[in-house]
């Protein structure tokens, strides 16, 4: 089991009389992810906010702030119990048998235009044996063919752009993997989470975007960017692509500072383990 | 109240050993739309199928057919009780107060790239008084600036394409209106329905794509293509755009004939009225 | 040496009071391509036309026709003397030494967005030994990865579209090969010509689009669509892509019938040979 | 007559063993633009370079530099004699009568996809009286509908992008105006020049991109960005769009510093005048 200490500081200056913020930075409540303790502070006395949980356990906060500086501080202790399985034992689910919720993730979305990639994806992956290994092959292909470069993409960059230009950040790797999976009829979705930054070579902890593919009746995690340790990734929001699952969406004139994030993994010898790379299929979601 | 007799005949030839069909041609069950009688016939004895209803009342049928000819016949009697209101009394809902379900329809989707249209849409509609009339202005603008031409677009045509090329079919009009609405923070969604073809000038009854905009706590209907009588439109499926709400999605090698559709409105003087054009705001959905 | 009998019949109906036609169907005058006899008939007595030759020998005809039917008939006898060389002996020209005319063909154009393909093209072809064989590798790659399908593309389809969707006609194969070549700094251009339809499996004679790459101080011909016998291709117009080199560009309201084309190769045992497939590098242009 | 003192300093660090530079920073030799004195210094003793002039008087410099720092300094005195005419007297040239050279500029190019804009452009400008005033209307429309914002676009941004997103720099304003002109059959081309920065509100002298439209047998200058005084613009390179007419194209690993540019207008009361805004049609090119 993984136990993470998550700490976040967001700093803004509201330039208009007021501004609305929609935040998805609360760790989701799921059967596999338990939020033990959490603490939220908002610096503006006059700000109003509320927290709302949807059927999947995702928690969305909306906050209305007034002109001037705004700080939002959040800390939580989160425990993640991964389901893991032997990749060789994880089958694909035939389209005809997909549950309705998973079926939606087979269709194209804003940044994952799978409808245009059928021939491309079938040529690459159509002949491979079905199962977890095929999703893994898509993940590896994306990682091998796209170069990670900070600030190489923008908010409108899509999977097609990344496929053509072969460069991006974690969001772009995720979009391309999702688009390719859907093009071969594998339901795939976008997760906004945090990256446990244990490995200095991979950089400090940060928000992260990764992929889940529906296989064997569960959603299995993949990190096509190869910049994180999947076992240390914590779920914030889930959606079809980044259009659904931004950690912050802002309406109004607002100046933002880079978020400050800390993620520490606890270790006590028996109960809490440090996240490590594994060849097992890892999952934290059934729906 | 409107009472429609709906009749549909679909004819395919399955060329592969089997094929999977996902159909959304059943009229949705909603508080405003009641399906009185319905009858479904599938020509293949060996075909298996099931019908599933989601939380919104949309009914999805999945069918697995074998090689060879396949006919699907469906008839239903459907009653629609429209909610109508004075446009001057229908306000916009501030983003901060949008229910979570409506909030999703403010984000960009596959064919409605509202994230790229903010400047364009604000220049056209940002200065207009808020309310139903603003959504109507978007609808009128789309109708006036896009030319209807059969077969002028394809399955990958998006709102941006239509904005640039100024030509399309009902699906394209809907996508452009939705994208423009979202760009000015109006939740908007795509409805696949049928078009009551009473007016010979507008063509025979057919599948139709139209738009719903979230205003005053309800979803109001708009027909940016101007080719239908909104009061006669019947809801089949609802989604972010055509990626979500096709009447048929097919996996396998299949040859299709054009669907044969009939929609007849009953009229009995007092209870059942013929659909007519109206200046009122019309709605058949709260969620 | 190749000797072709070329015959063309174009039939239009002008629907507006008048219409302007720009035709590039005259075989170009070049040192390697000699037009022996030619005959042109225009059916409208009132039509005016003129023929103009540019520095490269390309001949453009402009014609102004009046309302009503218009037929244009053209016949020519054309001799083509190919320069051929051993592929192993044909080097690339370093960018620094490219003549100014060739340099233009290294830049992106409307349908060949090589500026976006640098990473993609270098990953595929950057490590290959320089020379004719590298251009051949691009040609083969395009032929292997794109499927030929009639009517699968439109006048706005670009190399990026073809790269993503993997389907097209000869124009699309040419655009993709050109874009990939330019992305690795090989000057490449678009030729509109005719296809000697000797092989019934490849279809009847037709207009054709093919590619020339600047290597070893000459332009070498490539047919990435693989649908023609390059030795039998006759040059009409040359440009950066299809935007430059349409066989007909029309201004006005005009209804067109499919052009009727005949290309016959003469054979007399010694002087005139039938076009055949060859492994040699073939060229008919120095500039 | 305008007399400009032009001074340019370019500073690079070549990171690879060598790098090739193609520069178009020499003022073009044209009948209306005379280069009186010029001086070029290249800091690397081992660098080789040459200067080549094409038929239009454009001068391209190619330079091969070695690893390490590279500075290129250039100064010139340039006299520009503008042809000016009353806009009301400047007609459009019917397509049928366009000279072959101008005809090329009616076709779409990499960043000016006029082939997709016919309906859009005809709706806006199709009904206007033909002549200089119509090109002026396109220029004004672009200026009014696009917002100038530094760093808002990239090297792959096209006219379609700018039309949709309504923001850009001078290059983007030029591309959109060119695309719109071509869509209504007005030949239009891209000029890379310098901006006489007399007006502090418009910023210091800089490289600039502007437009020429073929009217009345000449190329007339337009500045759709509205950031320069057209009379003070000096021609460096001319092409279909930015793909053709970059001031520098670099092959190799090179780090660049921002160019340092000075443009001073001489004034001596009678012969040399300061550039001023004018309502006349201004031209410096017949071909």
TrEMBL record, chains A, B, C, D:
Q: Enumerate the PANTHER family for this protein.
A: BLL5557 PROTEIN, BLR5614 PROTEIN-RELATED
Origin superkingdom: Bacteria
Pfam families (alphabetical): Bact_transglu_N_2, Transglut_core
Protein name as it appears in the record:
Transglutaminase family protein
What region holds the Transglutaminase-like domain?
162-226
| Lineage of the organism | Bacteria, Pseudomonadati, Pseudomonadota, Betaproteobacteria, Burkholderiales
Q: Which InterPro entries match?
A: Bact_transglu_N_2 (IPR048930), Papain-like_cys_pep_sf (IPR038765), Transglutaminase-like (IPR002931)
